[in-house]
Structure formats: structure tokens, C-alpha cells
């Protein structure tokens, strides 16, 4: 790793420590999906997907650049027929593999095949402890039952599991119930993802998003269970928890990890700071990953945010760095704007 900038406060902002390459790539290897989720960020993406040989060559570039892990997503990655071949190739390059899935296609045989292909962890999306609520949100009857069953099949195959829950109006008051669900089905981690305003999430924002006061109350409850639970890692990926005197203990950086520890690659190879910041900074098939990571102007802005508006006088700014840059960009057009979810 190489430091291109010293960490610490400078000129009213924070100068970030820059690594030579991202630690993790979140890679949407396809756009197709069998669900119709009302918050999906990728359903509006109609670009072509990379063919297998081009994807293999791109994975070689990623591994050579020094990336540690790949998290495959989509769409639903299991709809890509050559997923297992792709995974075996990536694992053979020394990349640590994980995946996000809706769970629909994961039976006992598939779970075993995923383990043999090199997957060490799979996250299953479950947005409510109540089957009818989850099924309605995801747009497919029976999806909750299949998702819960997938957790069992994966655990039996020896793959670590997590439950991924997008917090929004359908579930923000059911923290305890979601913790119980994750524990009952052997998940090692429960990821509470803050609602983003990208893709269909923006179109359905008024229906699904919470008010700043509701976000504060949700995080108060979530932090209580995070502190209490010992058999379950309750993960909160929202920088604004700093307003409650907390931060993600697993993070190596303050504020958002996007553009600092991780990068997103779309199905056609386009690179973006994260899946929710739709600004293309290069394409993995033709551009040098390390150069893009080092020189992309928007990454420089995300790593060295400057406080504006109410952030300029906030004592918590050095910890939250203005909150989620993706939400700020989507709703104000400015990465430096205060996170619209902020209640301060």
C-alpha cells in the first residue's frame, strides 16, 4: 500500500489516506434479475454484459493491481450461467470471493457448488421478518421462504452467511425481529443498509425513505442491539451514526468507504465510485485500474470532502464527513452537501 496523502484535518476538511488499489471490488456481473424490487439501483441499467473471456482478462487486471477481494452482485448473479466458472477463475487468481443474492436459486446442490467454486461468504437479501411484507417489497411470492432456506443450505455447505436488509419504511421499527430472524437461521452477520436514492430508489423515495428523525430513532435502536449481541455482527454502513457517538468499528476510514477502500464495476466494465454514485470514471477493459483509482477527480473529491452548509459548524464532521455522498449527490447534485438523512 502507498500513502498519497497524509491523514488528518486540513483546511477545514479531511485529507484521506490513499491506497495503491481498492481493497474490495463490488462487481455487478449482470443486470438481469428475477425480482422486481422497488428500491433497485440496477434495473435501469440496460448496458451489455461482458462476455466470459473479457471478464477473465479483466479479473486478471484486478488481481495484478493488488485488489484483495471481489464481491459479485447484479442483478441476480446466479442468473449468469457461467458464474461458477468465473468464480473458479477469480479464486485461482488469489482473490477472496463473496456474493450478494436474493436466494431464490440456492438449493443444497447449488450451495455446495458455490463453496467448491471458491465462495467464502454469501449475503442473502431479506427485508422483513414477515414473509408477506418481504415478498411484496421484492415483487415475487414465495421469495422470503426461498431466501430463508438458502441460508440453511449455505451454512450446511460450509459457507459463511449474512442477512442484508435495506432499511426503509417497511421495516425500520422491526430491529429486534430482524435480529431474531438472523440468529434463528445461523447468519453470522446482519447488514443494515441505509436506503439510497439511486435508480428505482429515487423514483420511490417519497414512499420508502424515512425522515431524519426516523433515521435517528432507527439508529438508536440498532446501536443498542449492536452493542448487546455477541453471536451476531450487526453492521451499520451509514457514516451518520457518528452523530450518536458511534462508528463502524470494522472500517479503516472515516465517512464512507466508497472510493477509499472499495470501487464498483458495472456489468459492462464501467467503473464508478460505488453502485449508488453513477459517475463513470473509466472502464476495466481498457483503462489501468491503479491509474483510475489514483487520478479520478471524483474520487479525489470523495476522499477529501469539504464541509458545506450546516456541516461547516458541526463537531461531528471529522467523523462522518458529511454522511453518505451518494444520497447527497442524488438529492442535491453536490457530493459535499450535507447528507439529507442527517438530523443534526
From TrEMBL:
KW Transmembrane (keyword) present? no
Give the Radical SAM core domain ranges. Answer: 19-233
Q: Which SMART domains match?
A: Elp3 (SM00729)
Q: Which domain of life is it from?
A: Bacteria
Keyword line = 4Fe-4S, Iron, Iron-sulfur, Metal-binding, S-adenosyl-L-methionine
**Needs which cofactor?**
[4Fe-4S] cluster
What is a single Pfam family found in this protein's UniProt entry? Radical_SAM
Q: Which InterPro entries match?
A: 4Fe4S-binding_SPASM_dom, Aldolase_TIM, Elp3/MiaA/NifB-like_rSAM, GeoRSP_rSAM, PqqE-like, Radical_SAM_PqqE_MftC-like, rSAM, rSAM_sf
Protein name in the entry: GeoRSP system radical SAM/SPASM protein
What is the protein's species of origin? Answer: Geotalea uraniireducens
Amino acid at each position: 500500500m502507498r500513502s498519497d496523502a497524509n491523514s488528518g484535518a486540513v483546511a477545514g476538511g479531511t485529507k484521506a489516506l490513499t491506497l495503491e488499489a481498492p481493497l474490495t471490488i463490488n462487481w455487478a456481473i449482470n443486470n438481469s434479475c428475477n425480482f422486481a424490487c422497488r428500491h433497485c439501483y440496477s434495473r435501469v441499467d440496460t448496458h451489455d454484459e461482458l462476455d466470459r473471456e473479457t471478464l477473465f482478462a479483466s479479473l486478471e487486471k484486478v488481481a495484478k493491481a493488488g485488489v484483495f477481494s471481489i464481491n459479485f452482485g447484479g442483478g441476480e448473479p446466479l442468473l449468469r450461467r457461467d458464474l461458477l466458472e468465473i468464480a473458479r477463475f477469480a479464486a485461482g487468481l488469489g482473490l477472496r470471493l463473496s456474493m450478494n443474492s436474493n436466494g431464490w436459486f440456492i438449493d443444497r446442490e447449488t450451495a455446495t457448488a458455490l463453496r467448491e467454486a471458491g465462495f467464502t461468504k454469501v449475503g442473502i437479501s431479506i427485508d422483513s421478518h414477515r414473509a408477506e411484507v418481504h415478498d411484496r417489497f421484492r415483487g415475487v411470492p414465495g421469495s422470503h421462504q426461498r431466501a430463508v432456506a438458502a441460508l440453511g443450505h449455505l451454512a450446511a455447505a460450509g459457507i459463511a452467511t449474512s442477512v442484508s436488509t435495506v432499511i426503509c419504511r417497511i421495516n425500520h421499527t422491526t430491529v429486534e425481529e430482524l435480529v431474531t430472524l438472523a440468529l434463528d437461521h445461523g447468519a453470522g452477520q446482519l447488514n443494515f443498509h441505509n436506503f439510497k436514492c439511486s435508480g428505482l430508489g429515487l423514483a420511490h423515495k417519497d414512499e420508502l425513505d424515512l425522515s431524519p428523525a426516523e433515521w435517528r430513532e432507527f439508529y438508536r435502536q440498532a446501536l443498542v442491539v449492536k452493542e448487546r449481541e455477541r453471536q451476531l455482527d450487526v453492521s451499520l454502513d451509514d457514516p451518520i451514526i457518528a452523530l450518536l457517538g458511534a462508528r463502524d468499528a470494522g472500517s479503516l476510514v472515516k465517512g464512507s468507504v466508497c472510493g477509499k477502500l472499495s470501487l464498483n464495476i458495472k456489468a459492462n466494465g464501467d467503473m464508478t465510485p460505488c453502485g449508488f454514485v453513477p459517475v463513470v470514471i473509466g472502464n476495466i477493459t481498457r483503462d489501468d485500474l491503479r491509474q483510475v483509482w489514483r487520478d479520478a477527480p471524483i474520487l479525489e473529491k470523495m476522499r477529501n470532502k469539504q464541509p458545506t452548509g450546516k456541516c461547516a459548524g458541526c463537531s461531528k464532521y471529522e467523523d462522518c464527513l458529511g454522511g453518505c455522498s451518494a444520497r447527497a449527490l442524488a438529492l442535491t447534485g453536490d457530493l459535499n452537501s450535507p447528507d439529507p438523512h442527517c438530523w443534526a
